[in-house]
Every structure is written in C-alpha cells, then in structure tokens.
C-alpha cells in the first residue's frame, strides 16, 4: 500500500468534509475566501485549546474587537481580560502587537489588499509561526500552504504507518510532504484551504487519539492501519500511532496565597504579576513557600519579608494547578488587611488561571 493518498481518496475526504464539517463561527465563508482577521484570531485561539472552549471566546472577542483597528487601539489590560481563561497569554500579547503592526502598515477592517497575501508575509508578524501562517494564508487567500498540527500528524502517522514520535521534526517533515502531495490531486473546484481543514477535521472528530472511529473513516481504504484489518482491530492498533513524546520533567512548587475580599464592594485584593508565568495578569498576593515544614510564625515572617500586604490568617484550603512545566500546590489563607485597602472588581481585569480557581471556590 502507498503511504500517500490517491486522487479518489482525496476526493472522498473532501466530500466527507463538505457533508460533515462542524458549524463554527469562523467558517463564515468557503475556505480560501474568508476574512483574514477572523481566521487569524481563531487560529491563534485554537493553539493548545479545544474548539468547544474557543467558540464563546471567539464570539465575545469579535463583538469587542470586530476589526483590526479596534484590537490595535485597545489597551493590553483590556486584551488580556478578554483572553482570561484561554491560557498561554503570550498569544494574546502577540495578537495585540501584530494588530498594531498591521494597522501601521495600512491594514483596515477584517481584510483587503493591505493585509498579508502569503504564508511568508504572515510569518513576519509577531507570534505567527509556520502552522498559523499556512492556515491563515490557505483559508483567507487560497495559498497552497500545507498545515501541520497535532491532528494532521496523527492522521498522517496512521495513514502512512510512520513509527515516529508526535513531537519529532521527522514526523512534522513527513506530514508536510504528505499534505503537499495530496494538494496536487485536488479537484479544480476545491482549494488547499478546504483540504487543510478536511484533514484537521478528520483528526479532530474521527481519527482521534483514543477510540478512533475507523469504521466511519472516509479514507480507510488508503490507510496503512486499516490494511487487512477490521475496524475494531484497526482502531486498537491506531492508538499506538504516532509514538508518544518524551515525558515532561515537572517542576513542583508550593505557593501561599492571601485572600482578602470585600463583599460589600464586590472586590478582591489583587496584585499584578510582573515576571515569571502570566506577566501582566492579576491574582491575590502570594509567595513561594520554601519549606513545607515551616511553622506559622516562620510563614508569617516570610510573608512580611516578601513585601506582600496584610497578615496571613487561617488556611482555607489547597488548590492544585499546572502551567507549562510547573505543578503548583497553592495553600490559600485568609488575609487580614487595613481598613483603607483598595479592592478591585475581578471581572474588570485579566486573571491568572489559578486566581480564577481560587475566586470560584472562596469568593
């Protein structure tokens, strides 16, 4: 069996996609003809984030920032507040900075001649890598730029029988070549943007990491995993492809948070993170607990010595959180503060993910 799809299989996948694709707010026009602004925003949001999570964020974003000018003119705090909950906040900062560069270069509205017209031009903007550049260029102006994301790599590894780890450059390279070869076989009525979306949709809804629906796959007859096997056997074997990446080396941290709220004003004492993860976002004051065996007196002294406001009171409980390579155990204490303490409305600022967990539980 060839490790590439044939013309009939390419047509079958496109037909399946036309009939079965999910209705999503950024698919407001045929692939290759969409406004680049909406495509760009959606692709940035979809990085490392599930579609069902992104949909309400995208809709709220487009209401608040309907054009590139609206985004460029917004403050960073306003941008981060709209992003709060999606994580990986550098994406929002890069989106904001790129919008300012686009407007400075003459881009207006949601699209037009002043917008980048190729993947290479998109890749020159902050925060836009190879995948995003290819996706936006193929979906907005029809450039034959193959996309390679986790869904694509999984489909390719299984169809071609590639025993490569999901995070290797080798699998990325093979996937790009596989996608490009298929684009050479596209029917005249279909463009590369539709092909990119079709393969990603297949990976997201049928060729899933666990329990893939091999019996419903439109390209099963061109898949290495399916060759000579029934759907159930193929599905079991498919879960082994691609090979798993190397395990992460986690850094474990214990943090102490002080929570002070003013129910009458609907406010919470918040501080803005300056460095480390999530710079620019807000959360209750905290410190890194150097020793889990520290006495209450030592902990109070460390709190005072850190410059954090107020005095720690009783411990309310523990919240666990992960971010990048860090596993965090956060011990949350009541915080006793002076009468003139200034509280903030948490709905008006961008909060860290851990702060949202704390406030949902105790405020």
Brief characterization of the structure:
The protein is of the alpha+beta class. It folds into 3 domains: 34-141, Endonuclease III, domain 1 (Orthogonal Bundle), CATH 1.10.340; 145-247, Endonuclease Iii, domain 2 (Orthogonal Bundle), CATH 1.10.1670; 251-362, Nucleoside Triphosphate Pyrophosphohydrolase (Alpha-Beta Complex), CATH 3.90.79. 42% of the residues lie in helices and 12% in strands.
How does this structure look, described?
The protein is of the alpha+beta class. It has three domains: 108 residues, Orthogonal Bundle (Endonuclease III, domain 1); 103 residues, Helix-hairpin-Helix base-excision DNA repair enzymes (C-terminal) (Endonuclease Iii, domain 2); 112 residues, Nucleoside Triphosphate Pyrophosphohydrolase (Alpha-Beta Complex). The strands form three sheets. It has a four-stranded mixed β-sheet with strand order 6-1-8-7, with helices on both faces. A two-stranded antiparallel sheet has the order 2-3. The radius of gyration is 24 Å and the shape is globular.
**Helicity, as a percent range:** 40-55%
Question: Uncertain regions: pLDDT < 50 for 5+ in a row?
Answer: none
Helix segment count? Answer: 14
User: Which oligomeric state applies?
Assistant: single chain
Our measurement of the CA-to-CA distance between the termini, rounded to an integer number of angstroms, reads: 60 Å
Class inferred from helices and paired strands: alpha+beta
The CATH homology group name of the largest domain: Nucleoside Triphosphate Pyrophosphohydrolase
Overall form: globular
Specify the CATH class of the largest domain. Answer: Alpha Beta
Radius of gyration: 24 Å
Order of helices and strands: HHHHHHHHHHHHEEEEEEHEEH
Give me the CATH fold name of the largest domain.
Answer: Nucleoside Triphosphate Pyrophosphohydrolase
Strand content of the residues, in percent? 5-15%
Averaged pLDDT, please? 91
Number of domains: 3
* Main beta-sheet annotation: 4 strands, mixed
Query: How do the strands of the widest beta sheet line up side by side?
Result: 6-1-8-7
CATH architectural group of the largest domain: Alpha-Beta Complex
How many beta-strand segments? Answer: 8
